[in-house]
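Lab notebook, page 48
Experiment: co-folding of the full assembly
Goal: obtain a model of how the components sit together before planning crosslinking
Operator: M.T.
Materials (sequences as entered):
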Amino acid sequence: MPAAPRSARPAALAAGLLATTLVLAGCAGSPGGGTAGSGTAAAPVSGGTLVYASGDAEPTCLDPHVGGNYPQALVAGQYLETLYTKDDDGAIVPWLASGAEVSDDGLTWTLKLRDGITFTDGSAFDAATVKANIAHLQDPDTASSTGYLAVEKIKTMDVVDDTTLEIGLSSPDAALLESFSMPWVAMESAKALKRSQAENCASPVGTGPFKVAAWTKQDSVELVRNGDYTPPVPGAGHDGPAYLEGITWKFIPEAATRYAALQAGTVDMIDNAQPDTIKAAEGSEAIGHLDAPRPGASNRIELNSSKAPFNDQRVREAFVRAVNVDDGISSLFFGTAKRSYSALSSVEPMGYSDPALFGRDLDAANRLLDEAGWDQRDAAGYRTKDGKRLTLAFPVSTNQSVPAEQSLFQQLQATAKEAGFEVKLNLLDLSSWYGVLGENQYDLVSAPYTKVGPDVLRTLFHTSNTIPAPSGYFSNHAQVKDPKLDALLESASATTDQAERKDKYTQAQQIVLEGYYILPLYDQQNHFLYRRQLQGVGATTAVASPTFHDTWLARD
Amino acid sequence: MSAAPLLRVDGLDVGFGSTAVVHDVSLRIGRGECLALVGESGSGKSVTARALLGLAGRGARVTARTLDFDGTDLSTAGQRAWRRLRGSRIGLVLQDALVSLDPLRTVGREIDDALRLHTGLPAAARAAKTTGLLEAMGLAAGDAGRRAGELSGGMRQRALIAAAMALDPDLLIADEPTTALDAEAQAQVLDLLAGLRAGGSSLLLISHDLAVVSSVADRVAIMRGGRILEQGPTEQVLTAPEHGYTRMLLRAVPAGRPRGTRLSTVHAGAPDPRSGASHDQQPCPAPAPGAPALEARNLVRTFSTPGGGILHAADNVSLRVEAGRTLGLVGASGSGKSTTARILLGLESPDSGSVELFGQPWVPLPEAARRPRRTQLGAIYQDPLSSFDPRRRVGAILADALSSAAVGQARGADDVATLLELVGLDPDLAGRHPATLSGGQRQRVAIARALAPGPRMIICDEPVSALDVSVQAQILDLLDDLQARLGLGYLFISHDLAVVRHVSDRLAVMHGGRIVESGPTEEVFADPRHDYTRALLAASPTLASG
Amino acid sequence: MDDTRLQRGPRRGPRTGPHRSRLREPRRRAGLLRARAAGPVLAALASLFLLLAAVAPGWLAPTDPLAIDPAAAFQAPSAAHWLGTDESGRDIYARIVHGARPSLLIGAAATGLGLGLALVLGLVAGLGGRLLDAGVGRIVEVLLALPGLLLALVFIALAGPGVATTIVAVGLSTAPGYARIIRSQVRSLRGSPMIEAARVLGHSPARILARHLLPNALGPVMVLATLGIGQAVVWASALSFLGLGEAPPAPEWGAMLAAGRTYLGFAWWMTFFPGLAIVATAASSTVLGRALQRRAVAA
Amino acid sequence: MTEQALPGLPGGPGGPGDRAEGGLPHPGGTAVVPGRPWRAAGAWLLRRVGSAVFVLWAVATLIFLAIRLIPGDPAEAILGGPGSQASAEALAAARLEYGLDEPLWVQYLSQLGRLATGDLGTSYALRVPVAQLLTEQLPGTLALAAGAWVLAWVLALGLALWSGLGGRGAAVVGSALEIAAASVPHFWLGSVLVLLFSTAWGWLPPVSNGTAAGLVMPIVTLALPLAGFLGQVMRESMLTAMTSPFALSARARGESEAGVVLRHALRHAALPGVALSGWALGSLVSGAVVVESIFARPGLGRTLLQAVTLRDVPLVTGVALVSALAYVVVMALSDLAERAIDPRIRDR
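Observation: model returned without errors.
Model output:
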């Protein structure tokens, strides 16, 4: 696995060459053959329409401020841009902004913006726009969840001049720039934001290389080239508008159909590629593979520590020790996913990993359960205590867990039974799933969470996040309520010194891992397959969604 | 026959699988001659007729020593040759044109098909010819645009004949052409057929009814069990039948047989039903013969038709059945006989009018009040099979009927056996399903069921219409016997004048929902007063020899 | 052609003459009878297998349908695994056999529910007066206007997915069709000579209903149930397929098929065999139902 | 069985048995006063419109009641069920918008009033007027359903013809084919077709791509099971017609077997198919849900599925109403078609 993310425009900033990114892209195992940098020396040609097929649920709103999930980020990355972004080394670098300074108390940020950038509706990008965007996110009517959390510490905003915005925080926030790099906090035309939410959802207006032309519900979003576009950062990719005339962004939820469509050439690129198809594509000359693990948290199972039986750490450890994760991952993911032992994604530089905590040890599990009082077994072979069976409710969202992951859960269910756990898997649609979480009717849950930077730990493990946000969502599913951990996370988030931050986050992660609040599985999988005619694939946003400014279609 | 016959058949055999249905049949039909092929159901007469058209059916094995039509050997003819012949040289008319004409196509198109298939005529010429044909059959030119369902029975039968006669075939095969028709329509069609023969066509007339064919046929062939028993000139066969079966058939024809004459040779029932345990106790004492059993006064019943019109099914109907006597109710289909019967049975309420049963009010009356007295009134239907619960065996059906008679009386297998013997059936039949019985046996079971509660009055609605002549004869005799022994009153409903005349003491003629004439049977026959009665009598076929 | 159908012939008004059923065609050859019987025999064998699988799955497939073996995942059909293995190395043959019970139970329960509801509606409409009949007719028409899956989906939208919802949804959506058939069955029986004969004999309405009407109306209903159960299995599996029914790892055919579809190009047997089980169930129930229907008509 | 039950159909609707020759009392002989044709047509139209209004009203009422009968807060249901985690303000707003604080009958009447003016409400999930969404999605489903309907008829009639002409062997094989086709679930058939025609042989695109080729597999998937059902009733009807007395009459007139089939039996075969149109529509709509998902086609079916997953009650109601309206229209058309084919149907 590549150590660094295949990030975007800044990759060019950092390395000066797109090629670097693409070579890295090749690490995933695809022969480097067809991509722009390594294969042909052909010059990029302009024209053609990229047909992209997304396996995610079709967003109900194209403005990622509203709600704020990954499918929105994927498509919005084409027409919206962010104040900051992430470079090849995972460092946060300015994009629409040109820089920022923070006061010594960490409570006041002075944000400097680039000049001369215009939205596709003709309005100019300036400090008032940024203010309007953040205000939009904080407006309860917007019903933002992800973006809302990212900017929740912003209390005041003063437009100093067109390119300067002074931001006042309620408490220091070292993760502010990381937050600004996320598509859910992307900048939209202030003029456009004034329209009704329905209108803005249908055609949000940004500064990106493409713009929304039409949205046929249940079918596709038509994106056309922004002819006036040039990257705000000189030297990031090529100057001038995108090579592609447009992108047809289709929604094909069926994985098998999606891959069949790619094979048939009906579409040029797909996301959410299934492990078996990735493996098949590895042997194919015609199809390339882009592996872009998402930042933020790793994919993990959270153990609800707020109630029995997981309010007992021994039972949590017993579960973690009992289940066989590794065999499942290797057979179900065909080597496309690597086991994680960390709360954070492998692309997060401050991630801390401890494999020793997660080795399978059935004897230890049994011993721990005996100690915890679950020392009886019933006729079905499940452990009991005071006549109560050791049952774990595991609601699974079919929208959030890919089929291979659901299969993995079934395997965990089967192996947990050996130690005497009864795991009750319950496949639910998103709505019911949220409902179950809200009612605290779960013991195990897997909820991916994408956010740039280690501050995601605060989102996932701080006591305050056991309380639902205005949208109704709460993110601390393990329901960790540890004052020591809270203090660590708070001070880490207020610390701008990177070394100190890393130290605090490491301590925090140790508490989480050693307390067996989570069972890390692997990075959030983010695999793309594309036809080799498509060249210059590889650039991604800070949240690892692909961008197509430098992408072009080779004529056969 | 002087000239070579038009059709010569020798040694015709038809079989399906391992079953042979026609054996060694030999026929001759001369030019302009009419041969009647007479037999009861299952005699093989229809299959014979169809074999003459090469249409014996899928899977049929047809062999013949000679199958010669107008000098052409047909025994080796291919499909193409047959098709050239059918319609143009041999025509076929089936019974019941309602199903023999495509119900979805107009009559004109059906006739046109024959012309289109065998002539090169342009459409306009064919249309003209179609009109001509219809008019020749006594139909209007406009009828060409109507469908079978929109025509009356007689009209559509004539249209069917028009289609068969479109190309003046040398031979017309008519398979029961009048069976589904009322007497009047039957007479018209027979006239028409006779006219065709007079025009030079040969005719093969297939029928179960000797009386029908005797007026038209030159020669008659009697068929039974797939064989021809005897054939000869009509006069000779009717007056001097050689074969016992023919004699039996002739005897079974009720036409012209006075009331009380036996029609069958088979003994109808048990000698003395009074000895049967089931009839020791009658719910009511037998009334004196001649006392009113069932009396209807001014019954009116109307239906609104889908088109918005009003149909008078019963229009001021009054009638009286005397105990131990038979009232015949005769009329064409749609005359209101059945509606009247249903009102009398208390199955349907009249708009106005009343019925008394043995002097007690019967209709109108709440069903609950009527139910205890229902044992006094029985009913026999045309199609006994559909009136039996298909899930039950004969014994259960009769036991069920017996149980309704008197509460508290144990009635068992013995009574069932007695009932079966009463109607001349083997008690062993109690274990059979009605569907496995013959038509005659079924009707006997139906009669036994009607008798089970011990009624004094029975309404018989077309009880013999679905039966072969010989079986009909047995059933009529049985009914006669039972009346004599049990003192039953009958209301006998039929469209068949000959049958009604044979069984009735008094007669009521129904037409358009009204009783147009009534009186003692022989008086009505001798001196019909109403036009309709006269027309009905004229149309009724009788044995030519009778 | 069907001689059974000709036997229904002679039931006409008085106009009908004696020889109406003369068009009866002679028996067919024995060979053809054998060919026609082959379908029902095959169907009966398949149904027997399914029933056995539902009653004693362990006897037909001793392998645990839930036992995982990641090392043996995605194995093509072989001697060890007749129908291959799925993504967790579970034996597909065992899962199909063990899946018969939930699939058939859902199908049977849904059909039972649908028929029960239809019986009530059909009897009310068939026995009630003109107003009741028209009223029920309207209800049935409204239910018919909502196509099966739509009705099921609306129901799921309101009540949430699950096995019970599936049963109710499929039952609800099949009820109107049955109701119409039962209604017209009851109507035609009610006016039939058989019932009139019973009335003329003086039997009470309750006795006629219990002894004649219901038993005769129920025969065809049982045929319908046989016909319907296969389709109910298909419907229920469609809901599972859409992720709205029984959930894995329970061996339910629709859910197995849905899980297999992900690996369509890679492990076809995961999709193919569960689908085949559904088709076999539906087809054999149709063939059996029609054979029963033919027997009922012939009787 | 008196009623011709459609073999294998759970929803086997009333077949031609519905109008079997009536009971005893009205034999055809007596003259019937015919109504004036324009009055009959007017009455027919009035009856149809009346029944359409009734069905739509009943569907709307049913869903209205269902939302309120299901335990839980209707406002929450409107906002997407318990999972929506709707805030107190949002719930209050929804209550206000939908007038949920009003007495039930006021709510009911005002909803009916909105529907009567064509206002289907706004989709909770997509924040777009439902009417607009349906207008967008309808053409895709129409094209799919119409294509499948035509193909199913062609196949069913073809099978019926072949059975009619091909003798017993053909009838047995035809029957087996029909039962197999009718037993195949859409979702399996679609998968197998994709596997063969796209993945293995690469002949057809596996998803809708705007071309005619992209429509082939969805249409075939949707049509085959329907063709199986239709084929069963059509073949029965065809064979009955082929052995009927009028077919014998036609043969005796010199008509060839092909002539008997084409001129006579075919129409009789088509009749039950037409009578089943309402049911066929239901099967197509149900099938479209699955087929549109598998082949990633835009349309009402996919909209419905999404609306169901999101608990988008206004949208679900809208789809149900459109489908009910389509049913009513199709029933009227099939009634007209039946009258055209079969003049025996006067009044039903």
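Interpretation: The mean pLDDT of chain D is 79.
Next step: discuss with group before ordering constructs.
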